[in-house]
Design a protein that fits this description.
4 helices, mainly alpha, 0% strand, single chain
Length: 124
Amino acid sequence: MTRRAYIYFALTFLLGVVVGGAGVFYYAWHWGHWRHGFSKERVVRRLSKDLKLSDEQVQQLNHIYDDSEKQYGQLQQQIEPQAQALRQQTTDRIRKILNPDQAPKFEEIVRRREEERMRRRRGP
């Protein structure tokens, strides 16, 4: 093979690596594999570093986030029945427009969606 053929081969290989890497990155980002949920520790650590908080301020910040988390949990408990009713109503309305061939596939989608929702509520 000539030198030019080796260069074309190498460039093609590098282009494949770049395109493949970009595809993997897009897939993982789009489907949430590289996103992090809220982490109080990560936020406190970042604010501590960026704002140069004192130890007392860090303790106060932790207390603020603990209180907020508690209130958020109470709020979620209050609205969960309404949210569940709305999800059920939406699912029922969709079921009514489906033909018999589509219904089993939709039930599988609903089942997977509910499993994912429960997994997110339980946490990692």
